[in-house]
Write a structure and sequence with these properties.
The protein has 316 residues and is of the alpha/beta class. The protein has helices at residues 28-39, 55-67, 97-117, 158-175, 195-215, 225-232, 248-262, 268-281, 291-310; strands at residues 21-26, 43-46, 76-79, 82-85, 120-125, 129-133, 138-140, 151-155, 180-185, 220-222. It has one domain (21-265): Rossmann fold (3-Layer(aba) Sandwich). The strands form 3 sheets. Strands 2-1-5-9-10 form a 5-stranded parallel β-sheet, sandwiched between helices. The protein has a 3-stranded antiparallel β-sheet with strand order 7-6-8, with no helix packed on it. Strands 3-4 form a two-stranded antiparallel sheet.
Length: 316
């Protein structure tokens, strides 16, 4: 007897290995997966503009990077003693206006380079709900805790999202037509929008993605993060204390499914070696000066040296 259903996931035709260069963009769940890639020492760049929740925000910054557009003083504003940009996360906000603009333009240049070299791009959409700045009539990526009366809240239609996805794919193909793009929908529940509204939002994302897949199947694929959380892990014990975000058990499980289907079998041995080294590095000895621990450290350094010689990009 089986007491749960497991979602069938096709194995990737372009799996990730240690020759891959990965760029991850999107919601906070993108960060969860990127942390796993970092832990196992894959080459991975995650959210250079901070966490981005909706498709239009991701598309806009990719357009800046691909088209070589520049941020100017007109793109930033002062609020609560810091300069902010509506197109990026508040993590990048700065008390100095010129430093913020310079930092944003530097990120644009580096993102273009990362996209040109990427073998895989992972995009995680979080929501279809967006906020439009009433003064400029522009949809923002982040409200930066500005009073809500300055914005109008609206739900992106399936058609709008689909067009944004197609634009995003076109932008990537302009600079890197061989890049494999993996789309996924974040399992994080946006209950502040409302219970029904959260499901509506996710449904629009999923519908738009699959309508796009019907038209373009060459270098894009879908990983069902949201579906795994909703179906395989349908229990509150898999949520963090806020009952909105997946807890570590859920993140580990979704990563396991990702590993099984999207990472090359040839990388598994190296992943195991890296994992053993990471566990050893976190080991806290009872007696750091004991002979046994000194031998342990010597063997550990030898293992690290072997891997770092084999993969020059790895640093422990």
């Amino acid at each position: 007897m089986h007491f749960r259903t497991q979602i069938p996931i096709l194995k990737s035709i372009s799996p990730v290995d240690y020759n891959s260069k990965i760029v991850s963009l999107g919601s906070c769940f993108a960060v969860n997966m990127a942390e796993k890639l970092d832990y196992f020492k894959f080459r991975n760049s995650c959210n250079p503009f901070g966490i981005l929740f909706h498709p239009l925000a991701i598309e806009k910054l990719l357009d800046f990077a691909v088209s070589g557009k520049q941020f100017t003083a007109n793109n930033v504003f002062f609020h609560n003693e810091r300069w902010h940009c509506f197109d990026v996360h508040s993590d990048l906000s700065n008390p100095n206006k010129e430093e913020l603009v310079a930092a944003l333009n530097s990120i644009i240049i580096n993102t273009r380079k990362d996209l040109e070299q990427a073998s895989h791009l992972i995009i995680t959409y979080g929501t279809s709900w967006v906020y439009r700045d009433i003064e400029t009539n522009q949809i923002v990526a982040n409200c930066h805790k500005i009073p809500q009366k300055q914005f109008e809240k609206e739900l992106l239609s399936i058609e709008t999202i689909q067009k944004s996805i197609e634009n995003t794919i076109d932008l990537i193909e302009k600079v890197n037509p061989k890049c494999s793009i993996i789309f996924t929908v974040s399992p994080v529940r946006h209950i502040k929008d409302g219970f029904v509204e959260n499901q509506w939002s996710k449904a629009n994302l999923i519908s738009a993605l699959h309508q796009t897949f019907d038209l373009r199947l060459s270098t894009i694929s879908y990983f069902p993060s949201y579906e795994i959380m909703m179906d395989e892990l349908r229990d509150y014990r898999f949520y963090a204390e806020d009952m909105l975000h997946p807890n570590q058990v859920a993140i580990d499980y979704i990563w396991k499914r990702f590993q099984e289907t999207t990472i090359s079998e040839t990388a598994m041995t190296t992943m195991e070696e890296v994992g053993n080294i990471q566990k050893s590095l976190s080991h806290k000895p009872f007696n750091p000066k004991s002979e046994s621990h000194l031998k342990f450290e010597t063997k550990l350094r030898e293992k690290i040296t072997i891997l770092e010689n084999q993969y020059s990009f790895m640093k422990f």
